[in-house]
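pinned: reference chain
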Amino acid sequence: MDPIQPKFFQTAFDIECEGATLNLRGLVSPAGITKIYLASGLPEFWKSRIGSNVMVRLGTAEIPGVFHQQYVEHGTFYEIKFRELSLPVLGYLEQRMKAEGVSPGWQRKYPRIPVKGFEDPELPVPNLCMVRFVGQEIFVNVMNFTLGGLRIETLGDSLAELRVGAVLHFDLITSTGDILANLSGEVRNIAVHDHKTPEGSSLTRSFGMRFVDMDPVNERKYRALIRDYCMILQKRLTS
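pinned: its structure tokens
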């Protein structure tokens, strides 16, 4: 156990959906469960349930979540995002993290700055991305961004052929109306979510990208955007 900053604990658990049960193992935190690997592959029933709601049975806790798949450089793994945590369940998870917690071998170099779901007209963010792909110009939303890259999200199959390792060329449009043109980014991971609603299902894909060879002018503008964002937040916290 890492005595300084335990972020997860590793354990086995079950997920249930439409009467079917699957036993899995992964890294658990209050946000969900990640790094779920399956050496023998995912059964067909569960492949068709990616993006669906599931019930997680973990020790004494029952937690609703959404089943996701992540594509990364060396293959694929699965994740579960918890939908809601009651205070008793949160206390149970925190107790287990304290007793069994580990810090994983990976660590983000820069923290993510959220865009989607955190609309604030005073905070400057890159909120729209125009991707040039197979002769098309496709507008997609920015989910979050960091000093080294960003995550974009698209609805439907417009970027379905993208694979990890591909290099995308795009423009970023910011909430202040500025444009960072002719950027490039390498796709580092892909997540596919099938959101089911009473009206039907909608497939979304999100792509984590790392900037490649950003020119000095765009780099100055991008760093200034992040600096302004942080300064506004700092002013709010100290006022």
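why pinned: The first helix runs from residue 44 to 47. The chain has two domains: 9-100, 113-238.
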